[in-house]
Amino acid sequence: MSTKKIIAICQSGGEFQTEKDGSMSYNGGEAYAVDLNTETKVIDFKQDLAETFGYSVDNMLIKYFLPGNKKTLIMISKDKDLKRMINFFTDADQVDVFVMPQDVGAGALNVSNMPASRSSRTTVSDAVVLVPSPVETSHTDNHPDTTDTNSLDMVIDNEISPLSFTDASNYNKPATQWENTITGVDQRFASFAEFREALHKFSIAHGFRYKYKKSDSHRVSVKCKSENCPWRIYVSRLPTTHLIRIKKMNPEHTCNGASAKAGYRATKGWVGNIIKEKLKNSPNYKPKDIVDDIKREYGVTLNYSQAWRAKGIAKEQLQGSYKDAYSKLPYFCEKIRETNPGSIATFGTKDDSSFHRFFVSFYASISGFQQGCRPLIFLDDIPLDAKYQGTLLIATSADGDDGVFPLAFAVVDDETDNDNWFWFLTQLKTAVPVSQPITFVANFNEGLKDSLANVFGAGCFHAYCLRYIAEKLNNDLKDRFSHEARRLMVQDLYAAAYAPKVGVFEQRVQDIKAISPEAYDWVIKSEPQHWANVFFDGTRNNHLTSNFGQLFYNWVSEAVELPITHMIDVLRGKLMELIYTRRVDSNRWTTTLTPSMEEKVKEAGAKGQTFQVVPSQSSVFEVYGESVETVDISQWECSCKMWQLTGLPCCHAMAVFECTGKNVCDYCSRYFMVNSYRKTYAESIFPIPDVEGPVDGEELSVIVTPPPAKRPAGKPGRRAKLKQAGSLEMIRRQMQCSKCKGLGHNKKTCKDGETVESSSNADSNPEVLAIQMDGERE
Known about the structure:
Helix content is about 35%, strand content about 20%.
């Protein structure tokens, strides 16, 4: 296919002047010729111009006139804009392009009688108006181009709210920049939506209200809302083009803005346009600040909910349509596979074409898991507080430094749908073929349990996440025992789970029985073979919880409100950065073991220096320390069980190595070696261009619509926030007096001087003591 070429005459440093007919001319400055074609990227074009004119790439505006239109400038901000300009000038050999810095001063240009402003269709006045709130807007249409008068009136009545309008003399008037968004007959617009936007701004700047008399796909007729006021405007589509032109206009008002004074109305879309640029620079722009800014700058009073909805409109304008993002999933999957060969990216829809689920595992993750990670996978889910809700299913592993290694993730439409787990695990199995038994640490719900057995069969072990076991114990006994009793039972449960020997396990569950025989029975029936170290058949290196998903919780909190394709790409970017950073860091390591494992070995060695070692056979030793243990270095075993549980020599084995001169690295799991770690992060994840979807004209292979369920109106619920923060902990130690050991007060407020000795004999496991209860107190 031939590539269209054109010469851009790039001009900068001059001034625009407005002629009597409203057209503009450019005088003075310097000119520079650049060859362009449809394959040219905007960033390359900007870098060329930045070097020539001495501008910053990030602070540069590039604009041009449409053919035959010297009244309105069109902005170039992305690749599609540049390609569109070249296509506009198909029959020409060159095009005039105007380059200016974004912070150009007002004195640099003649800005009288300038037309409307827009992000892709704008005027020089945008660059020179020095106001607190830039007002360039997006292509998002708040009203359809095709509608009849009644339906349009209904949209207006439903989407706008009455707002008080302060007299112009009482507020700062940045709206004066909109006085010329409507200039008169023959002014052109790219669409009816753009005309409506310009008209809305024009009415604010001139203080009047209007109503539509007629509106369809070919023409729009508007009049002033005041009775007997002659102001009228009539626009229609320019034949054989997509442009809209003002055909007739009566610019005279006899109402003196009476209708506006009676109560001004502003759509949430209009407010969204106003705050969009501020939101881009300040993502945490709060609704109460929006209310204050709109009142101060435009004299319009909003309530909190109106500002909240307007913020949502602005975010959608900046980030793209949530609905359109679903339709681009097929294209997005193709791009993932194209830019990251060997990756798995797939999606599914329901019978009505609505979104069902999406799965991705990048080749860098697949290769890293197979080359350097333990056969250990953590499964977890995160409810998404997005516009269309859904759930993120994640699979992570542990690298040689016990860091989180993201393996795969999926977005599904219903977290309670067990079929989604089966589908996710089926996709995961294609990414991690079972060449050796895999241990999964996950929740114990029946859907996930059955899915693991059906998909991976005998080639896997299912370890119940200890946090979920503790949470269920707490909830099941909540109404029968005090806060403190349940805290101690959960503490003993953790100690039993981590116990390396059967005797220690039995002692801990007996401690639970001493508090409550009922709780003891609960623990015995909870399938300890799936969560207790002493009974579990798989290898999990002492990882008893699935909280490796915490990394994803943090990432998702930053991207959850984005459209689905953008959210996925943000997660991809986080993965890309993580893999690159760890690869660079590991190349500086000089040890044989990874840093955290090196530190653990050193601690075990220091503890073992005081032990006495007695040989029994060539590879079997008896070690005397706090207890007497038997070490068999040929089998990598110690009777204390810690060597087998962790994959690292215990303090007793370290005492043997010190005595015999053995190299400790020869007796450590290969997964803890720096070489294995480097293999884990050897591959890279690559960027995905054109996340926004195919260029205009390209057809989508499959239609995908949003899921029917939407998030309820209002702010996210407390539970959703806790879940997103990765907080599944349940019981935190209640305030306890150090003087009397009573609960609910401290030493300063204690009324009882008598000291009572604490009876707790549970381990002070920091993970247990950090467990938080849902705000409950006795």
